[in-house]
Amino acid sequence: MTPFITIEGPDGAGKTTLIKGLVSLLKEQLTVPLVLTREPGGEPLAEEIRDIILDPTHTQLDPRAEALLYAASRRQHLMNKVIPALQQGQVVICDRFVDSSVAYQGYGREIGVEGIIAINQFAIEDHMPDLTIYLDLTAEEGIKRIKEQRSNEMNRLDREEIAFHERVVTGYRVANQKAGDRVVTIDATQTPEAMQQEALNIIKTRFPDIF
Ligand SMILES: Nc1ncnc2c1ncn2[C@@H]1O[C@H](COP(=O)(O)OP(=O)(O)OP(=O)(O)O)[C@@H](O)[C@H]1O
Ligand SMILES: Cc1cn([C@H]2C[C@H](O)[C@@H](COP(=O)(O)O)O2)c(=O)[nH]c1=O
């Protein structure tokens, strides 16, 4: 089976920027096809759920309803895009997956990790990523980047108070320590080019057979 690789990190850590550069490097070097996708979303119905979740006017969305919507979007995307691609021998790179729910809903919303893991086990069964690359940045730096460079595109989650984003970063770091070698951390204060090269090297070391 080809690998399922996820990219994680707090808002503004540089996931979108990293993925863009990494995908062009990978396309030159991989011997198998590559599918790039994202959560929430990645396929038509899941994208509709994304629009509901991230709409800045949906300020009344209940935290547990939000967690369930992320899990529903995840299930839909997993069944209709990720698993079929892996079965066809494609490498899947996904911008966010279940670790985001643990960090944002479990820690950020303070729902608790056990409940989030339970609803996500129902959603994903045993389909965990083979590798997760975590971009480590403080909440303050990530939100600063977004406010300075992308303030016209701030979604409902981006607009949360800084304490929420700090809990998200703490949550990621605690959860990563329990995840063993599935999660590899990259220092996201580096230049985009240095981060892309480091991510490429991590993937080459872990999955030499796809190059
Ligand atoms: N390594 C970097 N150093 C400095 N600025 C960066 C770096 N990578 C990305 N940026 C800038 O930070 C902002 C956020 O980057 P990007 O959209 O890639 O982050 P993201 O992790 O995808 O954010 P989100 O989770 O909110 O979608 C952008 O304006 C981008 O140009
Ligand atoms: C998958 C997932 C995402 N989130 C949050 C994280 C971000 O703030 C938004 C998605 O926006 P992006 O620009 O595509 O990163 O949603 C979350 O809270 N829980 C999740 O499971």
UniProtKB/TrEMBL annotation:
GO terms for molecular function: ATP binding; dTMP kinase activity. Phosphorylation of dTMP to form dTDP in both de novo and salvage pathways of dTTP synthesis. ATP binds at G9, P10, D11, G12, A13, G14, K15, T16. One of its GO terms (biological process) is dTDP biosynthetic process. Transmembrane segments: none annotated. Its EC number is 2.7.4.9. This is Thymidylate kinase. Keywords: ATP-binding, Kinase, Nucleotide biosynthesis, Nucleotide-binding, Transferase. It comes from Aerococcus suis.
